[in-house]
Amino acid sequence: MEGLLKCPHGLVTGCEERQGLKIYRHLQDGEACGLLNGLQLTPEEILLEMGQTFVSSGNFTALAPYVRGGELAEGYVPPQASTALNEFLLFFHASAAVRSLIYETVLTAAVSDDDITFKELLELALFALCYARFQEETRTYKRKVKELLPYFGAGLLDVLAALKIDYSRQSAVSCFYEEYFFQLKYEFWDREVSPERHKQWQAVKLLALGIFLLLLFFE
After folding, report:
1. Above 90 in pLDDT, residue 9?
2. CA 73 to CA 82: how far, in whole Å?
3. Least trusted range by pLDDT, from 100-104, 144-148, 150-154, 215-219
4. Which pTM does this prediction carry?
5. pLDDT, tens only, 28-56
6. CB-based contacts of 96: which residues, under 8 Å, 6+ apart?
7. Is 110:118 a contact under the CB 8 Å cutoff?
8. In sequence order, what are the beta bridge partners of 14?
9. What is the dihedral angle through the alpha carbons of 40, 43, 49, 53, rounded to the nearest 10 degrees?
10. CB neighbours (10 Å) of residue 156?
11. Are the C-beta atoms of 123 and 109 separated by less than 8 Å?
């Protein structure tokens, strides 16, 4: 960090460059100085500058392999690529001007037979568009899993075990178990449940045991 100076807050501030922009931060706590940064560009201009730097530098070429068909591709995503993808999602969704820039770049690449730019930038645009839907579906999914807990509580694990639904069997079931364990550990409290619900849970456990024994008998 260089270019030390005192900002209007009276704090010593340093300047760093990020994606072609100068960002001023207070050395005392590392927080961005809103007054100095605000004197340079508006938030909309900053987002557009990020988008222009992203497109003109060809950074999308390094990220395209990690997305396919609107979703993350299978395999490991390095932290640096993950951070860059999150930044791309940020300025893509926050700025209509950035989206217009990316769409126009894709169209220009198609007309000029620039196959690489066309395919890779379009992949990222599709990923950004689908990601919003995926996020909404994820929130809905988590909410529905959470709704199960008041009805089954920890007894649901007994039911699933009795039905031989193994969390390691397939990715969808594994994902369900992962969310269930998270909800059970951090967001669900037995003490908030009525005695009547506890009786119902006991009935669930007995039913699970009966199913388990029945399946053993017919094996």
Report:
1. no
2. 12
3. 215-219
4. 0.54
5. 888 877 766 666 667 787 788 888 889 98
6. none
7. yes
8. 25
9. 120
10. 19
11. no
What is the H or E stretch that residue 38 is in?
A: helix 34-40
DSSP 169: S
The strand pair at 67-68 and 21-26 is best described as: unpaired
Cα(144)–Cα(183) distance, integer angstroms: 11
First-to-last CA distance in the chain?
A: 70
Contacts 24+ apart (CB under 8 A), 188-192: 188/146, 188/149, 188/153, 190/153, 190/154
Q: 58 — phi, psi (to 5°)?
A: 75, 20
* Amino acid in position 25: R
Place of tokens 């397939």: 170
CA angle 166, 169, 171 (to 5 degrees): 115
Angstrom distance (rounded) from CA 81 to CA 25: 24
How far apart (Å, rounded) are the C-alpha atoms in residues 117 and 165?
Answer: 45
Q: Which residue has the tokens 């694990």?
A: 157
List, for residues 164-190, the tens digit of each pLDDT value.
666 665 666 777 778 888 877 776 655
**Quick check: 209 and 158 in contact, CB under 8 A?**
yes
What does the CA dihedral 124, 125, 127, 128 come to, rounded to 10 degrees? Answer: 120
- Rounded distance between C-alpha atoms, residue 124 and residue 208, angstroms: 46
Q: Identify the residue whose tokens are 């689908």.
A: 130
Structure tokens at 50: 């990020």
d(CA 50, CA 39): 17
